[in-house]
Amino acid sequence: MSKFIIEESPCLKGKTRVSGSKNAALPILAASLMARKKCVIRDVPALTDIFVMQNIIESLGGKTEWDKKTETMSVIAPDAGRLDADYELISKIRASFLILGPLLARFKKVRTVLPGGCAIGSRPVDLHLKGLAALGAEIELEHGYVTATAKRLSGVEIYLDFPSVGATENILMAAALADGQSVIRNCALEPEITDLANFLVSIGADISGAGTDTITVNGVESLRGGEYTIIPDRIEAGTFMAAACARPGGDIVLENAVTEHLRPVIAKLREMGAEISDNNGMMRVQSPDAGLRSTDIKTLPYPGFPTDMQAQLLALLSMARGRGTVVETVFENRFMHAAEMKRMGADIKVESRTAAVNGVDRLTGCHLKATDLRAGAALIVAALGASGQTEISDIYHMERGYDRIDEKLRQLGARIIRVE
Ligand code: UD1
After folding, report:
1. Which of 34, 116, 156, 298 is the most exposed place for a label (fewest CB within 10 A)?
2. Ligand 1, pocket-test mutation among 298, 330, 400, most atoms within 8 A of CB
3. Whose C-alpha lies nearest to ligand 1, atom 37?
């Protein structure tokens, strides 16, 4: 099993480029299953989750090509739907559930695996299914599979009980090929939703309101192919911003970071004393010489503070001056990383959805285990601020969501290596 070894490192300095967004690329690749012609998607990050989605598309009869150098993926969707997606593949990533909406819309029948729980909570899919049922699908749940069938999908008004990212995406994709108008209310506002809508519009869909809490979709007969470039990954950018602040004196420039998408992260890091400026798409992050001060954080759907940045900021709070709290409102069980940070000397008390943190002068390196993708990234942030050597195992979690993270951090001066 591979692991990262991080030696006590100097503060980060230099420049790196943010890759394309994983959470935008996954639904866009799924949506390309609805197109009649080839889709060429640029700035697709080289991640295991992405390659699993590529294999899923192939297993459904689609054809794909990956150009490693330009990080471009081409997809030619199958002409006829295969009923069964490969169980092994599908159950590897939760995002595979995003094939449900597109295959139902295009082929009127789909059978896929019902995702189970994961390290950060039970993560139900009831809102996805309710939305698709409202569009006219018949849903059957049996032996861990979901089968959705429809003679036709018809536009409808849907009110989501919670602005779920995945449910908004599945419903939006299915509605794009339904008959008539759909209005999705209380939908998710995340930039990845807007990116998916922009992609769909670029191949012929009629969608307005993405990025607001009400999306209107006028169903079209078919979708053509086209070329599209994925937005930069705001969570990767945020993780590098946190890494830059792990030690006083950090000073990095992020190319391809979108300030607008990072407002809540920028606000919190500024409260903690960091200086952040944007110069023509180049974001500069400077960590205060006097060290960080603590703050309080509450995760919320966009434009609130992202749950996917909670662990990385918890790492910073555990090294900051004073006392802070982190309240996790999006997922019910997302503090697994706190136990690992405590092994480094962090003073964190978790009770239900709140972590109370007393900053300590120094964390100390030790052997750690990544429990999920963002938890793993947070342990890297903690290790970059710690004294001594840190070893992080189970790094396959990080490879699901960070494109060459060790290489990029080395560029910035971190003493991190990957060993088998
Ligand atoms: C997406 C992101 C993930 C991010 C999350 C929240 C992808 C591939 N993943 O996940 O990185 O952390 O958004 O920003 O884009 N819920 C229900 N019923 C449902 C669906 C969701 O109760 O049918 C609940 C979930 O259990 C969770 C909350 O809603 O508590 C948010 O989930 P959701 O927004 O759907 O997240 P994902 O799309 O799974």
Report:
1. 116
2. 330
3. 166
